[in-house]
Each structure stands twice: as C-alpha cells, then as structure tokens.
Amino acid sequence: MRELPVGVFDSGVGGISVLRELVRIMPWEDYFFFGDSANAPYGTKSAERIRELTLARVDYMYRKGIKAIVVACNTATSAAIKPLREIYTTIPVIGIEPAVRPAVMVSEHPRVLVLATPGTVHGEKFQHLIHGFEEKADVTALPCPGLMEFVERGELDSPQLHQFLRELLGPSMKEHVDAVVLGCTHYPFVKKAIQTVVGENVPVLDGSEGTARETRRRLEVEGLLRDSSRTGRVEFEMSSPGKEELCRKLLWG
Ligand code: DGL
To answer: What SS3 state is found at 94?
Structure first.
C-alpha cells in the first residue's frame, strides 16, 4: 500500500498548484495526477453533474491504484467530498476549501474578497464556511466564470488576461480590500496578474500549502509515508489529449 502513488484530482490543470506543494514538501512520494479537462470547466455545471463526474474519475484513479486521494479542486470538494468519504473508507480522502480562515486573520475585522467558481460560491459548503466568520470579517465572494479557461490554455500573462481581470475585479476593488483568497486551484497560476490588479500590498492567499500539509499529516498518521531518501515520480493523465506539456510546465516551471 505504502508503495502506491498519491492520487491528485482536478477538473483540469489547476490541481497542479496543489501537486506543486505536495512535491515540494514530500519529494519522495510518487504522484498520479488526473485532470478531467475534457469535461472542464466543472464550476459552471450543476452540483449533481460535478458529483457524478468526480465520483467516476476518482473511481478510475482508485482502480489504477492510489494510497490516498487529494481532491485538488474546490468545486469538486464542495460537491462531492461527502460521498467520496463514504465510499473510500480505507484510504485518506483530502479536500480543499477556500483559505478564508488565514485571510480573516490579516487584520481587525478585514474585508476579504474570495475568488472562486460559481459552483463553489453557490455551494452549501462555502456558505457554511463564511457563515462561521460573520462576526470576525466582511467576506464577499466573487464568482469568476471564464477565468480558469485562461489557465487551461496556458495563457498566464497575456494582455487579454489583464483586461479580463480588470473588468472582473474592478467593481469589487472600488472599496478597500484587506485580503484576496484564491478559492479555485487554477487561480494561483495567474496570481501575478491578479496581484497587479488588486495591488501589490494586498495579501493574496490560497489553500494549496495547507492542503499539502494536511495530506502529509494524514499519510503520517496512517503509516503511509515512503522512505524519504528516495526521489518520487509524477505521472500525468488528462482526459483530453495534448495537455502533458502544459502540465509539466505548470509543475516544473
Ligand atoms: N480547479 C477548480 C477549483 O478549484 C475549478 C475549475 C473548474 O471550473 O473546472 O474550483
């Protein structure tokens, strides 16, 4: 069991932002990354459809052989983490959620802007999450349909992307913002462009490091960590062809 790779799942290439952190803190592990780019975006689909796609893809990964599953997609976590935990009781199942918790700590009663897919923003899980911070902060969510597509195309710094972001974020930036949360795993790949629009002094946070740390903790607790003197391998599989080069570029730079 310990010899199996860690499975990392996303609707596309975004989950590589989490994979990057996993490889950084556990370079000795093997990883099997699966991106369902043929069905992306997930974020504009119904919760039922996202759940159906996620369960089918994770089932495929489990059959191939993985010792843990990291759902490196906020949208899929929101729609499917509960049934996944009910189905896979013998391996760790780790999800990701927008990093609101660290963001509300940046100042006294901060104004926090969360960027995420429509699926995540309108999901019950997110509503529940922000409800818990009502007293401590003013949390506003901004659905960003169309943004993940730039990353899927490998378009991380084009004038069109900057224009798109200015139009999308402009109205929300009219008021003072203390922190921005990237609540979709695709967005860290366009963090530089987002930072330019929101201002260099505004902290822009994401949940990839926390998710990687939680994965390491779960593997440790379950006695599933491998010998740390070895160098692990990464295997990519995407449901649409021709994406491998982009995957490698996003992971290794
Ligand atoms: N990467 C996914 C997330 O973290 C969403 C992208 C999509 O809409 O498929 O929410």
So the answer is: strand
